[in-house]
Amino acid sequence: MLTLYTSGSKYSRRRCESVVTYFYNKYLSRYKIEIEVLRRGLLREDVYGWESVTGPVLKPRSFLIEIHNRLNKDNYIKVLMHEMTHVYQHLRGDLRDIGCLRLWKGIDCTELDYEELPWEQEAHQREEELYEEYLNHLTTL
Fold first, then answer.
1. What predicted TM-score, i.e. pTM, was given to this entire model?
2. Maximum Cα interatomic distance, the chain, rounded to a whole number of Å
């Protein structure tokens, strides 16, 4: 079961709900999770979005996704798919935050540069594919 909280205009909330529900139904339906998606200005942080665990880190089931509020429709969907991939990585147990350590499949990656981070490489690799899958899904409705 998915519990989803969103922010933004009615139009952006519907898009967010559609994307997250699609991803959940396709990849995460066996998990009971809670996701909050906040749209806000992220220019100062110099990012389009990020995901974090908001509940227990040992068996994460509660997540926060913050996404830049000035993305066009296509980039919004791609960034949201990217961040949902991180949710999936946490649920699989591949990506773990333990104290100030970031572990990928049990290996400490805290000191790696952003472009070297394996979870980011996977999310970047998948976002375009997920975006296309989602668009194809919309045309079959």
1. 0.94
2. 45
Do the Cβ atoms of 65 and 38 come closer than 8 Å? yes
Summarize pLDDT for 56-102 with one digit per residue, the tens.
888 999 999 999 999 999 999 999 999 999 999 999 999 998 888 99
Residues 6+ apart with CB under 8 A from 133: 26
Residue 93 near residue 130 (C-beta atoms within 8 A): no
DSSP of the chain: -EEEEE-S-HHHHHHHHHHHHHHIIIIITTS-EEEEEEEE--TTTT-SEEEEE-S-SSS--EEEEEEETT--HHHHHHHHHHHHHHHHHHHHTSEEEETTEEEETTEE-TTS-GGG-HHHHHHHHHHHHHHHHHHHHHHT-
**And the tokens for 19?**
């994307």
